[in-house]
Fold each of these.
Amino acid sequence: MIPELRPAGLKDVAWWEYALRFVFGGVVTAVAGLVSHAFGPVVGGLLLAFPAILPASLTLLWRHEGRRQVIEDARGGRLGSVGLIAFAGVVWGTARAWPPAVTLAVATLAWVVVDVGLWAARFGIRRGRTA
Amino acid sequence: MLAELIVRFLLGGAIVSAFSVLGELFKPKTFAGIFGAAPSVALASLALSYAKEGPEQAAVLARSMLLGAIAFYVYGAACVATTKRERWPVWAAAAGSWVAWFAVALTLWGAGQATGVLR
């Protein structure tokens, strides 16, 4: 099985659902900044990997497509967190040596490669079955 | 400080929304779900940290983020387990799983402090 691009999926989501995600993302980013300011970057950095948006996303998905799809999406989120670990590791290891844009670009690439690779290994070879 | 918070809010909201749109574009849901763990808040926060405080601060943030990301994996596992329970509303299962994230993140942070790794 390979991932399928489905542009029509964008129409299934109401504008207020995108707005809700924007607000959640914005609030968590602002709070992470406030926590770093108040308690230092060692504590604030934890929040850079806080799963802020998932409860809202999964609840919206539950309304649209039911619980089975929610469980599948949560499985994807669990797998995606491994790429997040790779992202953080790359930034930690290269931030002092590389230009910021290069560090963030390579870290994002690491997130993509790790997650797509893990997904292919876990779900991609199960031909003919629902991933 | 207020101006910085507004910039953080707008940049964080925009990047989270962008990854959210990407997630809606793909099937199956196991693949789309990967975008729920995208480094969206991290990209916004690190970019602003680089601009304001420099690379040393970004490296310290990323080191702690590594612990938060390990906690995210446990959160994901808790989410998979709790959303399977038919009697629990999905919002309660997913938000309740935050307890797992806080427990793991704070335990790792405490261990890092105690051993001197995070100082």
Amino acid sequence: MKHMSLERFRDLLDLHGSDLARWPSVEGAEAAVLVQVDPGARAALDGACRLDRAWTATRPPAANPELHARILRSLTPRLAPSASPRSAWTALLDEIGGWRIAGPALAAAMVLGIALGYGISDETSFDLVDLAGFSDIEVEY
Amino acid sequence: MSTDDARAFADADDELVRRMALGDQGACAGLLERHLDRIRALAQRMLGNVDDANDVAQDTFLRAWQLAPDWQAGRARFSTWLYRVALNLCRDRLRARRPESAIDTVDLADAAPSPEGVAHHDQLVARLDVALHRLPLRQREALVLFHDHGLSQAEIAASLDISVEAVESLLARSRRALRRSLQEPLT
């Protein structure tokens, strides 16, 4: 095992903290040896441990149970609508392209509906076709 | 936590997220149970304010709910993603604060040692809190994730979206800065 210098030990102490178990295994083992034999290393480790203990003492307390309930309450209305199983229509819509196809599908449905309406009645509703923005489409009956 | 334990924990998170996306309230409660304390503690460390920390925690889980339908299991750890979201929300709040309060985000009056007979340890704790909030933001984030959350340097790198080398640098500089700050005489 290599001998670790005090300077290197201090650098690694800044890098990895005072818990030698969290150091990379080789450096941790070298450091453990050093603190046994070098008072300077021991003092540096003690100082880092004090800092870590103070850190632990300032750790924020656990969340209040009320916060847990508050967050759950805020999400519940959002969860409720999707709580029921997805409908077959929703699944089919997803399969064939989701909401991206909604526009073209609506337009196609309008054209089909108008065409059928024209076929049933004798009156042609070209105005409706114009309104839908499809005035340039020629429809043969 | 061993690698296997961490994997099992992440897999369980993925399953809860999948169920939450289907509207399962129990899964949502389960995710809160597993992560709320850590997220709220992270936010409180970063913001130094309980109410702001609670709001950030709530917003973080709201984002989680919004993301749930698009979550791709196995691509990233849900816990790492939560840290990222919470830290981003904290940064937004810190930026929105007045410049002078952004430097020192804790209430100094509360953090200052009490007048007489205060034990050395109590003074150290109070000064540490102040010193922590004087650190640059990234240094504070790295230190909090390392100490409070036990994240490895690689996990911190993933949470902050930076390299492991950058994390090492942040941790070393932040510890030196804290030590220097604590060695200064009390004013």
